[in-house]
Design a protein that fits this description.
The structure holds 2 protein chains of 2 kinds.
Chain A (H helix, E strand, L loop, with lengths): L17 E4 L10 E2 H6 L6 E7 L2 E16 L4 E7 L2 E8 L12 E2 L6 E9 L3 E5 L4 E17 L4 E2 L2 H4 L5
Parallel strand pairs in A: 3-11
Antiparallel strand pairs in A: 3-4, 4-7, 4-10, 5-9, 5-10, 6-8, 6-10
Chain B lengths: L9 E2 L11 E3 L2 E5 L3 E6 L2 E6 H13 L6 E3 L4 E5 L3 E6 L4 H5 L4 E6 H15 L25 H4 L40 E4 L9 E3 H6 L11 E3 L2 E11 L3 E3 L4 E5 L4 E7 L5 E7 L3 E5 L3 E18 L4 H6 L11
Antiparallel strand pairs in B: 1-2, 2-3, 3-4, 4-5, 6-7, 6-14, 7-8, 8-9, 12-13, 13-19, 14-19, 15-18, 15-19, 16-17, 16-19
Helix pairs in contact in B: 1-3
Classes of the chains: A mainly beta, B alpha+beta.
């Protein structure tokens, strides 16, 4: 029997590393931790933890039901802690212009055809397909990161989440 | 009708004693003995251990010269211009540059790749796998004995949309030749519960990324697993040392998904130390576009490398129209 121990993080148990500067500014590394960000976020705030021009990685504290979202391009949700249900609907009419970047929040559940559902645990990645609407649900606080493009629901608060000094 | 240029390789017959061929590319000359690789160019020469050279060469070949600079060590490497490639010695080393000993030649990328593949093929002995962690492979040393073409010719995985979607890159299993790695023996192999309504089987999709990575048979070889236009998730399993110092020509992001990696960060042009970044599970950080970095992973770990693949970015940064850091706050 192997005694190997792979270490993952969680909301309940995470440790941060950090930037030790020799000749630099730690802010250049935009260093944060997704469990800490989720720990300090309200449910379903989509907080950017990575940004590369228009593209972002959002960090989400999943807890209870999320609003419904829609997006004109693919997104991918990676569960980093907990268990999250993702409900998918194909709207009867397009909800987002094709050239719109990022997800939008819907006022209510969309009318449309049920596409299916995914129940994802730690390490599971789920496609949030373009042109669909989706809702997250988590019975217990969980952490999800989303590969997407910055949009209306993306929150940027870098000075609050990132290492600013040694 | 298309035509494909066949590039020639300037190589000698195998050496009578060591059994290895010597190679030339432009005014660069390459030879190896039992332990070392020796590189000569008009202004100087350089020596590095054969295993270190082969591990770096393997990445440069597999990554098709990657994004930016691939420093085999502090002296020798390549710089990708996406179509052409510079091969250099001392160009990004303060001392060599100051002394005027630096040297650089530019080649068509396919031309140089042809020579690099020939060197890798000839100098990799039976049992030595440059992609593997040191504990998982025989040594690179000794006189020429056999080859390991199956290992060095592995294809880099590139999902078009996401791993596991019907028609896209498949998930890894025992049956497809990807057993769980010894250092990830405790990683859960469960699968997401996917319920797709009829007609939506290609759109309602999910897979276990951590299980997928636990079955990777290579180290330090990012592979595209999900794609949002030019945003590429390139997760990888890491153990021991990143075999190159990667010099960024754009911002690159790292999210540590398991265990720990320490990154030693130096100035891209001079090699002067700038920072040491320790990443633990859940940590996420950017590597600015004006640095080079090398990672050290004491235990096999899971790292998400996140790239923006736009070809416009190096030009924007070089012309000062885009910053070398991703956000300012």
């Amino acid at each position: 029997m192997s005694d190997v121990k792979t270490v993952f993080g969680s909301l309940a148990n995470y440790q941060k590393g950090g930037v030790a500067v020799i000749d630099d500014d730690p802010k250049n590394y935009v260093f944060s931790n997704v469990f800490e960000v989720a720990d300090k976020s309200k449910p379903y705030e989509r907080v950017a933890v990575g940004k590369n021009f228009q593209y972002v990685i959002e960090c989400v504290r999943a807890e209870g039901d999320s609003p419904w979202y829609a997006c004109a391009h693919d997104e991918f949700a990676l569960v980093m802690d907990g268990k999250v249900e993702i409900r998918l609907v194909k709207p009867t009419d397009p909800l987002v212009p094709e050239d719109k970047s990022g997800a939008i929040k819907l006022a209510a559940a969309p009318k449309g055809k049920k596409m299916g559902r995914v129940v994802a645990g730690r390490g599971h990645m789920t496609l949030l397909p373009k042109g669909s609407a989706y809702q997250f649900h988590a019975d217990a606080p969980s952490v999800v990161t989303i590969q997407t493009i910055a949009g209306d629901v993306t929150i940027e608060r870098w000075s609050e989440i990132c290492q600013t000094a040694e | 009708m298309s035509s494909k240029t066949a590039y020639s390789v300037d190589a000698t017959e195998p050496d009578n004693y060591y059994g290895y061929r010597r190679f030339k590319k432009g005014k660069f000359a390459f030879r190896r003995d039992e332990y070392f690789v020796h590189i000569d160019w008009p202004k100087g020469s350089h020596t590095l251990p054969a295993d270190a050279f082969l591990r770096a060469l393997q990445r440069d070949v597999a990554w098709n010269f990657f994004y930016g600079t691939v420093n085999f060590d502090s002296v020798f490497g390549t710089l990708n211009h996406y179509g052409t490639v510079d091969m250099f010695a001392g160009t990004f080393n303060d001392a060599y540059k100051s002394a005027g000993l630096d040297y650089l030649e530019t080649y068509n990328a396919e031309d140089l790749m042809t020579t690099f593949k020939a060197i890798l093929d000839d100098w990799t002995n039976a049992g030595y796998d440059p992609f593997a962690a040191p504990e998982e492979t025989d040594q690179a040393y000794g006189r020429k004995h056999g080859d390991n073409r199956d290992a060095i010719n592995r294809l880099r995985v590139t999902a078009k949309r996401m791993v596991g979607i019907p028609g896209d890159t498949p998930v890894r299993t025992d049956k497809t030749g990807y057993p769980v790695n010894r250092q990830f023996a405790d990683v859960e192999q469960d699968v997401p519960e996917v319920q797709a309504e009829p007609g939506f089987e290609k759109e309602v999709a999910a897979f276990n990324l951590f299980a997928y990575l636990s079955r990777s048979d290579v180290t330090w070889n990012p592979s595209v697993c999900s794609v949002v236009k030019e945003s590429l998730y390139c997760p990888t399993s890491e153990e021991f040392t990143l075999p190159v110092e990667h010099g960024n020509d754009r911002v690159e992001w790292f999210m540590q998904m398991s265990d720990e990696i320490v990154w030693v960060v130096k100035d891209k042009d001079t090699g002067r130390p700038r920072a040491r970044v320790t990443c633990k599970p859940g940590d996420i950080c950017a590597m600015p576009a004006d640095i080079r970095h090398q990672g050290f992973s004491p235990k096999r770990s899971m790292l998400l490398v996140w790239e923006n693949a736009s070809n416009e970015i190096p030009k924007l940064i070089n012309e000062g129209r885009a910053p070398v850091v991703p956000v300012k706050f």
